[in-house]
Amino acid sequence: MLINSDLHLHSRFSGATSQQMSIKRIAEESKRKGVELVSTGDCLHSKWLDEIRHCTPVDEGTLELNGTRFILGTEVEGSNRVHHLLYFPNLSSLTDFKKKIRPHSANLETDGRPNLKLNGEQIAQFAKDVGALIGPSHIFTPWTALYAYHNSLKACYGDLTPYISFIELGLSADTDYADRISELSRLTFLTNSDAHSPHPVRLAREFNRLKVEDATFEEVKKALLRMGGRTCTLNVGLPPEEGKYNESACISCRTHFSLREALSKKWRCQCGGRIKKGVKDRISELADLPIGCHPSYRPPYLHIIPLAEIVSAALGQASPFTKRVNDEWLNLIRAFGNEVRVLVDAGIDELTKVTTPAVVRAIEAFRQRKVTIHPGGGGEYGRIDLASQIEVETLFEEKQKSIFDYGG
Question: Which fold has domain 2-241?
Fold first, then answer.
C-alpha cells in the first residue's frame, strides 16, 4: 500500500507554535490535507505525551485518532544548535531515552523541543541504545542544522555515522540539491513540514509517499531503511526557491547577494545587517558533484505549492490566511476530499464545476510548471507569481506529473 506521511511537526508545547496544535486538530487537518500518517512530534514532553495517550493504540509504536495514524517522534537540539529527528518503536523506548538525556537537559519538561548538552554522536548513541531511529533535521538550514556547523556527517555523528539512516532536506532544498553531496547518497531523504500551525499552508506542506504494508512504526522503519521492498516512492515539497533561506540575503533588509558578493562584504549588508548564507550557496561549498547524481533508489521529487497559496494568488489576495481564501479552500476540500487530490489528481473539467475560472487557471498553471518563484532568503519566504502561458511556455517544457504516477 502507499501512504502519505509528514514525519516532523510540533505541538503547542514548543516555542513559537500555535496553541491550536492539539493532537485532535492535527488528526483532523492531516486528513483534510490527504496525509494518513504523521509523527506526534514533541513526544518527550510529559504533558504532550499525556495528550498523545488519548489516541487508540494500533500496536506498540503506532496510535490512531479519527482515522489518522501517529508514530512517536520528536526533535531535539544538541550542541552547536544542531537539530535531530528521532522516532521511537514504543513507549518503553521513549521512556528509556528520556532517562538517559534527563541529566543533560534543563528544559526537558518545559519545551517540546528540548535542548541537550550533548553532541550528535552522544545523542545517536542513546538513540541506538533504545532502538530509536535518528537523523538530522532540515540538514542545510543556516541556523540550526548539521551543515550549518559541520562539513560532514562524520564531523557531527562520529563513529555513529553508519547508524544514521535518513536526513530531512528542509524547505529550501530538494533532491537535486542534496544529491550533489556524495556522502548523502546512501541515505533516505525525507520531506516534512516542520509545522508549527495546523493551517493548510503549514501542515503537510511537504510530505513523503511510502510503500509499506501498513501505516505503522515498524513499516515506516523498514521504508526508511529500504528493507523488504518497503521504501519511499516520492518526496513532495515546496520548490526550494520558496524556502526562507534559499539564497544568501540580509536578515534585516532582505537584500539578496551572490556568494561572491557576500564574501567580499564579509557577510555584512550595507544596511549594517548580517547576511545569512543561503542553502543554495552552502551546498555549492559542500558539493563534490556538479549536478545531483541520484542513486537508483532515490524517488522522484514532486514540487507542490500549498493550495491556499495558489488560491490566494488566483483571487488577488494579499495573504493565504484571509477569509475569502479559506472559504474557497474549504469549498474545494469538500468537493474532492483532501488537498492532494485537488492539486494533482482532479481533472480540470471537474475543477471547473466547483471553483472559479481564476482558481482553475492557477491550478492548471501549477500542474504545467507555469509558476514563477522569486527566491526566498534571509528568513523571508519566496514569492510566487502566476505568469501567463505565453510568457513561460518556452521556459517550462516538462509537464508536472500527477502524484499518482509515482506508485513505486
Answer: TIM Barrel (3.20.20)
